[in-house]
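Thread: "does anyone have the structure for this chain?"

Original post by V.I.:
We have the sequence but no experimental structure in hand. Need at least a predicted one for the grant figures.
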Amino acid sequence: MAMLEVKDIHTYYDNIHALKGVSLEVNEGEIVTLIGANGAGKTTTLRTISGLIRPTAGQVKLNGEDLADYETHELVYKGISMVPEGRGVFAQLTVEENLEMGAYSRNDNRVRDDIENIYTLFPRLQERRRQVAGTLSGGEQQMLATGRAMMARPKLLLLDEPSMGLAPILVEGIFDTIQNINKEGTTVLLVEQNALMALSIADRGYVLQTGEIVLSDTAKKLSNNKMVQKAYLGVD
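Reply from O.Q.:
Generated one for you, tokens below.
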């Protein structure tokens, strides 16, 4: 049984039919990527999985359990964390306060240890631990948003466009971090417009066009697919 099962979901924004029967699966331990052009429905898919938008039809299941009756904040307790597009850090709080906020769902005594683990993963954040998050660079805010999501100790991490707006020199580091997070045991569903980088670290992938899944395969096969190469990888 897949960890995450998305079955035939239909999602609307007012009269706009944004998702038209999207189905996908993510197995425990995988990195799965969802690629597609702007407006294809990638962010809407993640927002539907995380409960920020309610589908009008279809099911989202985590380890076989239907998530329809849970609010977004309750899904954190179920093991789902999301790093939103645009990072969404708490701008007026310090780096360390942001990380502490990420652990709001926990009542154990390992929070301090996990903050130190985040600092090991992102040494730059340790240097900035007392700095107000709104004054960080874009790359540092992406590190912080990812670290904050990891503080909930998620089973499944949803990442929405983690490379957006970052300098090319920082992008590779972010993708290395995603791989390291996965190697430590966190399953990842990655939405990313940089299809080349996404497919280079993913196990499997789905291609979304105008609200519909049009292709799904291993990342390697998608990288070699002529349509994918022409539409998303810049290969003629």
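V.I.: this helps a lot. The chain has two domains: 1-79+154-236, 90-153.
O.Q.: and The first helix runs from residue 42 to 49.
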